[in-house]
Write a structure and sequence with these properties.
CATH class: Alpha Beta
Number of helices: 10
Helix content: 25-40%
Distance between the termini: 32 Å
Strand content: 15-25%
Structural class: alpha/beta
Number of domains: 1
Length: 283
C-alpha cells in the first residue's frame, strides 16, 4: 500500500466518459426520471459500463435515511415511494437492450417494509417485460427483518448481493446504522435460499490484511460465493479520508487468497465496485 494524500496514484486514473453508448444510456436515464448509483456514487467505471449499455438502477428515490461516512448518496427525508417506478425501470431495461441488469436502492427506514414491496414488484416487472434478462439485486439490510428480505428472495433474481462494506472493527465508524453481524445474517439467508449470494468491501479505510482475510472467512461461513474488493475513494471533504491507497499487487493477492478460501468469483482491484462485471456473476 502507499500513504494517502491529495494526489491519487496513477492506477486510479480513469477516462472521461464519452461515446455513443454512454450518451444513449444517459438519455434513457434522464428521459425516464431514473436514478442510478453510477451517478450518485460517483462510480469511476461509469464510462466503461454506460459505454457498454449497462447501468445500475437506484430505486426508491435518491435520498437515503442513513448517513454512512463513506457514501455520497444524499441523506435526509425521502419522498414517498413511487408506485410507477417498477414499470419505468422495466421499460428502461428494454430500451437499453440489456441482457443483465443490476438494481439497488437507498435505505428506506421510514417505510414499514423498508421498501421491500417496491423491490419485489420491480424485480417481477423487469422479468415480465424482459423475460430473457438476468438480474442482480444489491439490497440494504432491511434492519435484519427476515420477512422483508424474503420478499426479495421470493421474487427470485439470479443474484442477491448485500455488502459488508468494511471489516468488523471499522463498521461502527464507517456505517451509520448497519451492523456487521446483521449483514452476515442477511448474506446467510440469501445463500440458504439457493440464490447466488454476493458481498463486497472497500479497502483503504485503515483495515489490516489480516482483518480483510478474516472478513473473507466470515463471508464464506455465511455461504457467500461472489466477492468484490475495491479501493475506497473519498467523495468529499466531509466524508472519511482515505487511510491508504492499496496497490494492484495487494488486490491481486486478496483475489488469489479468496479463491483459495472457496469463493467462486473474486473481483479485486483499485477500481472495482459492487456491480463491476456483474453479468459474469450469474453462476
Amino acid at each position: 500500500m502507499v500513504a494517502s494524500g491529495d494526489h491519487k496514484p496513477g492506477w486510479l486514473k480513469t477516462k472521461i466518459p464519452i461515446g455513443e453508448g454512454y450518451t444513449a444510456v444517459k438519455g434513457v436515464v434522464r428521459s425516464h426520471q431514473l436514478h442510478t448509483i453510477c451517478e450518485s456514487g460517483h462510480c469511476p467505471n461509469i464510462g466503461e459500463c454506460w459505454g457498454d449499455g449497462t447501468a445500475t438502477f437506484l430505486i426508491l428515490g435518491d435520498i437515503c435515511t442513513r448517513s454512512c461516512r463513506f457514501c455520497n448518496t444524499k441523506t435526509g427525508k425521502p419522498m414517498p415511494a413511487d408506485a410507477g417506478e417498477p414499470g419505468r425501470v422495466a421499460r428502461s431495461v428494454r430500451l437499453m437492450h440489456l441482457s443483465h441488469c443490476v438494481i439497488t436502492s437507498v435505505n428506506r427506514d421510514d417505510l414499514e417494509d423498508g421498501g421491500s414491496r417496491i423491490w419485489a414488484e420491480t424485480i417481477r416487472e423487469v422479468r415480465r417485460v424482459n423475460p430473457l434478462t438476468t438480474m442482480e439485486t444489491l439490497i440494504p439490510d432491511f434492519n435484519g427483518k427476515f420477512d422483508d428480505i424474503k420478499r426479495i428472495i421470493d421474487a427470485a433474481p439470479e443474484v442477491i448481493s448485500h455488502n459488508l462494506e468494511t471489516v468488523r472493527r471499522l463498521t461502527p465508524f464507517v456505517r451509520s446504522r448497519a451492523r456487521y453481524d446483521t449483514s452476515l445474517e442477511v448474506i446467510r439467508w440469501i445463500s440458504d435460499s439457493g440464490i447466488t449470494g454476493k458481498s463486497g468491501i472497500m479497502v483503504g479505510l485503515g483495515e489490516t490484511e489480516d482483518e480483510v482475510i478474516a472478513t473473507m472467512g466470515d463471508m464464506i461461513m455465511a455461504g457467500c460465493r461472489v466477492m468484490t474488493i475495491g479501493q475506497y475513494l473519498q467523495p468529499s471533504r466531509k466524508h472519511l479520508p482515505v487511510a491508504a491507497y492499496i496497490t494492484p499487487q495487494q488486490f491481486q493477492k486478496y483475489r488469489e487468497t479468496g479463491l483459495k478460501m472457496g469463493f467462486r468469483i473474486v473481483e479485486s482491484g483499485p477500481l472495482v465496485r459492487s456491480s463491476y462485471h456483474a453479468r459474469k456473476h450469474v453462476i
